[in-house]
Amino acid sequence: MGRYIYFFAKNEAKGSAKLRNLLGGKGANLAEMANLGIRVPPGFTISTEVCTYYTEKGYYPSELDEEIKKNLKKIELITGKKFGDPDNPLLVSVRSGARISMPGMMDTVLNLGLNDKTVKGLVKQTDNSRFAYDSYRRLVQMFGNVVLGVPGEKFEELIDKMKESKGVKQDVELPDESLKELVEEFEDLIKQEKKVDFPQNPFKQLEMAINAVFASWNNKRAINYRKINKIPEHWGTAVNVQTMVFGNMGNDSCTGVGFTRNPATGEKTLYGEYLINAQGEDVVAGIRTPQPLAKLKEEMPQVYQELYEVTQTLEKHYRDVQDFEFTVEKKRLYLLQTRTGKRTAQAAVKIARDMVKEGLISKDEALLRVEPDQLEQLLHRRIDPKAKVEVLARGLPASPGAATGIIVFTADRAVELADNKKKVILVRKETSPEDIHGIAVAQGILTSRGGMTSHAAVVARGMGKCCVAGCEAIKVDEKEKRFTVNGMVFQEGDYITLDGSSGKVIKGKVPMLDPELSGEFREILEWADEVRTMGVRANADTPRDARVAREMGAEGIGLCRTEHMFFGEDRLPFVQEMIMAESSEDREKSAKKLEPMQKEDFKGILKEMEGLPVIIRLLDPPLHEFLPNYEDLLVEITKLKIQGADSKEIEAKEKLLQRVADLREMNPMLGHRGCRLGITFPEVYSMQVRAIFEAAAELTKEGAKVFPEVMVPLVVNEKELSILRTQIVKVAEEVMEKENIHFEYRVGTMIELPRAALCADKIAQEADFFSFGTNDLTQTTFGFSRDDAEGKFLPFYIEKKVLEEDPFQVLDQEGVGKLVQMGLKEGKKSNQSLEVGICGEHGGEPSSVKFCYRIGLDYVSCSPYRVPIARLAAAQAKIEENQK
Amino acid sequence: MGRYIYFFAKNEAKGSAKLRNLLGGKGANLAEMANLGIRVPPGFTISTEVCTYYTEKGYYPSELDEEIKKNLKKIELITGKKFGDPDNPLLVSVRSGARISMPGMMDTVLNLGLNDKTVKGLVKQTDNSRFAYDSYRRLVQMFGNVVLGVPGEKFEELIDKMKESKGVKQDVELPDESLKELVEEFEDLIKQEKKVDFPQNPFKQLEMAINAVFASWNNKRAINYRKINKIPEHWGTAVNVQTMVFGNMGNDSCTGVGFTRNPATGEKTLYGEYLINAQGEDVVAGIRTPQPLAKLKEEMPQVYQELYEVTQTLEKHYRDVQDFEFTVEKKRLYLLQTRTGKRTAQAAVKIARDMVKEGLISKDEALLRVEPDQLEQLLHRRIDPKAKVEVLARGLPASPGAATGIIVFTADRAVELADNKKKVILVRKETSPEDIHGIAVAQGILTSRGGMTSHAAVVARGMGKCCVAGCEAIKVDEKEKRFTVNGMVFQEGDYITLDGSSGKVIKGKVPMLDPELSGEFREILEWADEVRTMGVRANADTPRDARVAREMGAEGIGLCRTEHMFFGEDRLPFVQEMIMAESSEDREKSAKKLEPMQKEDFKGILKEMEGLPVIIRLLDPPLHEFLPNYEDLLVEITKLKIQGADSKEIEAKEKLLQRVADLREMNPMLGHRGCRLGITFPEVYSMQVRAIFEAAAELTKEGAKVFPEVMVPLVVNEKELSILRTQIVKVAEEVMEKENIHFEYRVGTMIELPRAALCADKIAQEADFFSFGTNDLTQTTFGFSRDDAEGKFLPFYIEKKVLEEDPFQVLDQEGVGKLVQMGLKEGKKSNQSLEVGICGEHGGEPSSVKFCYRIGLDYVSCSPYRVPIARLAAAQAKIEENQK
Question: For chain B, what is the mean pLDDT?
Fold first, then answer.
């Protein structure tokens, strides 16, 4: 063990910011400031090693006492005060300070050095008897509680009694005398409770306080906090003994906090507030309203100038925005603390970009300064944070963004009102494919049932519309066109506002902020693009999504789902006809009717993405999703029968019911879907593939350069892919021959089942590309049905830390990630030209994006508005790798 | 290339059985027999290399013609006949013969050497003009068709015309003259069709025939056959040219086939049949009834004696049962073919055991001679194969075995009749938990709906009862107490018989055979136990199953499922009460009522398995399985409402419906089940664990040595197991303290989700044992819901060879197996004392059992009646490894 104690005072500190592990965050920064020539109240830090020593052995190093005395002497020399001197007493604070902040977990004692004699010296010094006795009262109370263990409420009881007897309500109203009396009562209480006297000897006070702070490292609260936050026991805490300074010594004193730049906007201006003639606690207590720092410039111009210069020095020194605390005691400025300032996404972007322009930090540093996760704030329409809102209820944040509109209860009504230029919010118990035209025209969707993958949620996310799902507090009565919540009734035409990012349902209209891709933001993202080597694509199902994706910087479409196209109002009847078909010929006939529409869909998307690859996934969900709900039909038929309805009508319904029954499954997630449909009903895929290639041919003829890539979903082995690849290639050749034109195309597969990842070597031989579908891969690897888990055990699991994270949000690197790694490695080994990406929702989650980079994926693909997040995260991953 | 041609005749063959690849199966065995001094019609084999040469180059090696002539000369020397000699003509056959038999795929030409002149010699030689001209007629016909390519039906037309003109019905009724005429007509037909003459030159005939047989290796039929059976193109076929011998030369001639032991029973006796004065074709055609070989002993005692000795020589030489063909031409015996004889399971067991006793083969060889898969025949009650049955319909073979009984349509009625000592078959559309008491008393279960994992199937398999499920041809009318099938009506009280192994539903009573564990069978299994090093346990849920398992040789219980206990008539109300409970206290109260019953369940099983480990899996299925069906309730409520029923009744039903709705899931397979229930509702597992340990404590007090092992299902990470392990250990300690007794126990987990296998290293640190649940692991690794896949795409996939095997029957070694291997390796690496087994249905499937041995599992566990199969397969795996 080296030295135990590190002294600090302006221009003469033994420690520095580098010694954070030894001195704790507070101690290290105090030393650093002192060495920068900044005035800090002089003091010393007892290192964390002493804590460890004490924890291990139960006693302190023998030299410690001597060293404390030596350092106290140094303080006395600088301050001209003397510890325990009845005329000019030095007062000190004793505070904990670990490597990282553990707010409120450990103990603090202020005003040490006061006793019956020195308090009189303080009265003289300050000419403020009330202040002196109140300080003394606080010392005895804190010491009695923290150091001696007398329950805090016993002191409070005595204060309350005193206030009652004096007929006052606030502590501050108590006169000097009462405070004096309280000191005595407190000392009696200590004696009575703990059979010891409050120590009048200041050195005894100091020794006991230091001891108590070290011991507080092992109090229950701190142990629990460390467990939860995974802070190692052996780190220990440091103890800071520091001269007390007082901002409440008159109108030439004050105390305040501030930032070197505006933490909300990033603007380069001193930002903060202060209170004249006050102490830190008063600012926190909020009894008086603090003034903005600009006001200090008027009131104490010199002090302001000094503060400005000092904090500028700090920002330059630390090369980041500083969040500082200061006290002015009789016009003399002391800095009490400095640390990196927290900031909003907007500020983070602006500050990072500005600091590069100012030459303060490098572009790499700037990129690391912005939290990718935070960026989402900037990428959706959002409720103005300044607005006052009345929250009616909270549902699941199913699709981010915010929307205001009048409520409607049916899709048809939504269309009707939207045609009349009304902004509508569609409110349903739950949505079904038949509501799709209503969803398309609505500003936002609210459902009282269903989870994060309910129909409403999936479709809304797909369309980039805000959605609050499964909001059970809202009782929807679709027939009466109203909903009730907490006894309030809302009817068609009433305004509500949804916040899809938080799940809030809000009464009335609320002011909104539009998403911003400000100049600074663009600039930062361009720097990210210069650095990153992993591609970023978008998941987009419509030309509109594709356009947004391109604006957001996507380098192609990583996943274009085709099933949502099937839900269109004009297509659903043909889709249902295709499903009800009883022969291959009939199926083909219905499919043919869909082909021209699908072709237009693909033309639109391919055109938006001209020059970039577009991966189109063939139909994935089980067919029953396109038919009416089984239970609804069942109830309807039961009613018709009892009511003696026409037998033909019943028969038709029963036929439909039979088909739904044939198709529905125990576990549709693991059922007859994906390429299993393609293999058993080849007509559907044939139609889709033909539509894709016809679209490509037509665009090529028009002179556009398009790159369609056909993706086969849900393969378990190479045979499936080989069968379908043969079929796809055949159609491509037919189209090229018929249209007499050549276009490039590729055929690949989704890797979304564990077996596909495990057998990637063989599958890769049939594929031009792999795209890891980590949503489904997570479902099967965990055996979690997302629909079920999110409403049932998953929240419980996360709350109880059975799982650290929701694996549907953050890629499970240990399990699912291992499969992705295996699949990638084996796939590339057996097919060197294989391109490998990921298109699950994890493709837009920063820690997952970084993982994807580290294991060597070629690109990630995510929803359009997460593209900027992925671009930044990919750049950070590269920088972090370079720094290793 | 070595020699092209291998001569063979008694005591002088150039080839041998070892040259199978070169000579084909037939040629190699002919050479081997010749070298053993057995009389075979002399001949020679043209090697497969010539075929390859010809296929590659399109012509034959130049020396071939010369060699053929040389070898023909050798035949002439031995037979004293001459090829093409008008007085004493030698006739030969030309046949294909590949490495492995490709029955009927390639061509054969008989009677080569006949022409207008030599036929007269044959007449003289045999004194049988009809025989000679019929032989000639056959040659021209076969040659014309096979060698020259004239369609076979054109010859048949001419024969038909001839028969008509002669007024006869059978070929054999045609007189010599007509046959002579037919030869001429055939020759004209060839001339007319192919513009060539039928070659009168015997050498030309031979050359062309050899050419045709080689060419037939590449006919369409043969190519397809090879594709399907994965026979490589380059193997080629050999060609055998062999002296014709005739069993139809009078009453001192005959032809026959036989086995050296009875292939049905294994009895050591010459077994087979023959026809006097006949040719091989006649035996096949079945015009006359053949005689048993015993009869030959009377008719031709010397020939019989020779045949007996020769075939005994063959059996000793080949050290296995031989399936042979022979011809006697004028009292002279010729062996035409020999090969290993196919046999029934019963025979295989007896023969293997007897041959060891006879010193013919080693025990290891004996163990390899029995096909484990075949043994299943012996392990269930089965329909007497001799019985004539009328099959009404076929459903899914859901649970093996056979049963006869009178039909009933409700569980209550089943119990009523069973109480009156009636044997009943329970027939339902589908079963539900409420039928469990009916299933328990029934001989077998028949359902018209549901798959291999429907309630009926699972429960029946669990109880070891025969079940035919999803038999859609049967229309069940439960109300009218009848079912109809193919227009027939069956009513309560009518007899039917079920074959759960084939899925057949049979009319009336049928004679049955009981399962046999004969002395020989036991002996073989004991030998297997001596050899094998991998353990074999059983999956058993009841004391009765446990008893059977022990009889079958199980070394413990690898999986005791506890959910079936919950379905008991006396428990279900409490289970439902537990599920409907709205607070933890209420849940605990209901659980407490189940505890004594569960304790008795466990006592029974532990007692049966005294001295052996019993792995008890805690509750696994989702809770809604114990409640009524959602749709039934829905329909019921709809009816009640329309009919204006009592509002309280409706309310109660709606409350139940609500609970069912809360609990039911989109994908129950991936839902709130297994340890997820244990963690969210700890009361259920607590009750079960307490019941297990109380049972162990009571038995230990009674002096029994029991080894309960608690298995936690469906874990995805170590945290789940650690939470539950803590809970389980706590209960164990409480019980031991309360009962003041010590017993051993262990805590482990099922590995049945990909993530568990991928993270086995961490999970192993919380586990005493792993048991791979390969049923669920297959479902999640493939993303196949067994319930859905088996009724939908899986049969199609297997038929079209998209999958080679049903992965629920045969472990998918490439995908699922890789996970098992990883989990095993990582688990054992991080916990050396970890015991690892498998308890999916694959544990009783021979190729899967062998895989389990090869990768190093400690044991397999399977249903009780498959234990002998697993014991044998495990021994075979060990022997196969030793042989490497």
Answer: 91
Chain A residues within an 8 Å CB radius of B643: 642
In the prediction, which pLDDT does A263 show?
Answer: 85
What is the model's pLDDT at position B285? 54
Test A638 with B643 for CB contact under 8 angstroms: no
Residue A325: what are its φ and ψ, rounded to 5°? -125, 140
* Sign (positive or negative) of CA dihedral B76, B79, B81, B84: negative
In this structure, which amino acid lies at residue B712?
V
For the cut 60, the answer to whether the pLDDT of residue B729 exceeds it is yes
Segment 776-835 of chain A within 8 Å of chain B by CB: 776, 779-785, 787-789, 792-793, 796-797, 800-803, 812, 814-816, 818-819
Cβ proximity of A752 and A559 under 8 Å: no
Q: State residue A284's pLDDT score.
A: 56
Question: Cβ separation of A780 and B783 shorter than 8 Å?
Answer: yes
pTM of the model: 0.83
- Closest residue by Cα to residue B315 from B307, B326, B304, B327: B307
Report, as ranges of residue numbers, the positions in chain A whose pLDDT lies below 70: 1-2, 104-105, 281-288, 433, 452-453, 458, 461-464, 516, 791
Compute the average pLDDT of residues B233-246.
Answer: 93
CA distance B401 to B443: 10
SS3 call for A242: strand
Provide the token pair at B576.
């439902």
pLDDT for the residue numbered B520: 92
Kindly state the tokens that stand for A499: 């916040």
Per-residue pLDDT at B705: 96
Mean pLDDT, rounded, for B604-633: 92
How many residues are there in chain B?
884
Q: Are strands B488-491 and A495-499 parallel, antiparallel or unpaired?
A: unpaired
**Residue A455 catalytic?**
yes
Buried b (16+ CB within 10 A) or exposed e, A752-782: bbbbbbbbbbbbbebbbbbbbbbebbbbbbb
pLDDT at B641: 87
What is the rounded CA–CA span in Å between residue A177 and residue A164?
Answer: 15
Distance CA B275, CA B285 (A): 12
Q: Which residues of B touch A814 (CB under 8 A)?
A: 758-759
The pLDDT value recorded for residue B281 is 65
- In this prediction, residue B189 carries a pLDDT of 96
Angle at B717 between CA B715 and CA B718, to 5 degrees: 105
Cα B305 from Cα B692, distance rounded (Å)? 68
Going by C-alpha positions, the residue among A202, A240, A5 that lies closest to residue A112 is A202
B680 interfaces chain A, CB cutoff of 8 Å: yes
Which residue in A663, A676, A787, A816 has the most chain B C-beta atoms within 10 A of its own C-beta, making it the best mutation to test that interface?
A: A676
Q: What is the pLDDT of residue A516?
A: 64
Asked if B784 and A679 come within 8 Å (Cβ–Cβ), the reply is no
Query: CA–CA separation, A321 vs A338, rounded Å?
Result: 10
Amino acid, single-letter form, for residue A872: L
As for the ipTM of the complex, it is 0.82
Q: Provide the strand spans (E) within B605-759.
A: 613-617, 707-712, 746-751
Query: SS in 3 state form for B303-322?
Result: HHHHHHHHHHHHHHHHCCCE
SS3 (DSSP) at A142? helix
A362/A142 Cα distance (integer angstroms)? 47
pLDDT at A462: 58
Most confident stretch, B337-341, B457-461, B529-533 = B529-533
Which ranges constitute the DSSP H helices of A358-485?
Answer: 363-369, 411-419, 436-441, 455-463
A486: left (phi over 0), alpha (psi -120 to 50) or beta: left
What is the rounded CA–CA span in Å between residue A25 and residue A102?
A: 10
